[in-house]
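Lecture notes, part 5. Sequence design as translation. It can be helpful to think of inverse folding as translation between two languages: the language of shapes and the language of residues. The source text, in structure tokens, appears below.
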């Protein structure tokens, strides 16, 4: 059986990632879907922990380990079985977010990041859709949201730093990514993202 494809939807808060994934759920019900942190079972319990207010001041290494624990569980229980069955797996966030958020705050964890990534991916080669949105547009959209977690309440400067580390991640050799202009209106952005997905599936 032909191996499936692992598609990761990445980018900063307010970029429209979850809106795109929810649209895919309606249009492509045979795809397998995951999100990070969380997903199901044990991973979802980790999500509740890392999004809690107590996590705001947690040690960077502790947060790093929690995100990878959730990810390892998702890979073993969701991603690998689906790929082996020849299915397309779509994840709302993945390791680029860990790089942008955790390595951005503690660069000393970079070597550990790439070592852990290689161990967890077990040879899987994902394709990333990089949703790029300006800080100003992201904050405008975030202001329209209701309840916010501690990630949502970050400063403009923190958001710029996060974006710079996303850029650093996507510039690494061996990382396959396609940019999506997420500053566009929702309809136009979704159209561009669908085109990027088609390209990713053809890689």
């Amino acid at each position: 059986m032909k191996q499936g494809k692992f598609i990761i939807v990445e980018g900063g808060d307010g970029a429209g990632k979850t809106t795109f994934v929810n649209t895919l759920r309606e249009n492509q019900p045979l795809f397998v879907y995951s999100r990070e942190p969380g997903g199901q079972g044990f991973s979802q319990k980790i999500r509740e922990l890392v999004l809690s207010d107590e996590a705001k001041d947690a040690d960077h290494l502790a947060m790093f380990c929690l995100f990878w624990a959730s990810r390892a569980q998702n890979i073993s229980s969701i991603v690998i079985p689906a790929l082996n069955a020849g299915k397309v797996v779509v994840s709302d966030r993945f390791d680029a977010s860990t790089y942008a958020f955790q390595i951005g705050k503690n660069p000393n964890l970079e070597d550990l990041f790439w070592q852990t990534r290689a161990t967890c991916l077990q040879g899987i080669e994902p394709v990333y859709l990089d949703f790029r949105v300006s800080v100003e547009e992201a904050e405008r959209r975030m202001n329209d949201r209701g309840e916010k977690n501690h990630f949502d309440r970050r400063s403009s400067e923190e958001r710029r730093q996060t974006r710079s580390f996303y850029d650093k991640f996507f510039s690494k050799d061996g990382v396959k990514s396609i940019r999506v202009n997420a500053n566009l209106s929702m309809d136009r952005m979704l159209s561009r993202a669908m085109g990027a997905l088609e390209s990713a599936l053809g890689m």
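The translated text above is only one of many valid answers, since several sequences can fold into similar shapes. The two ends are 18 Å apart (CA to CA).
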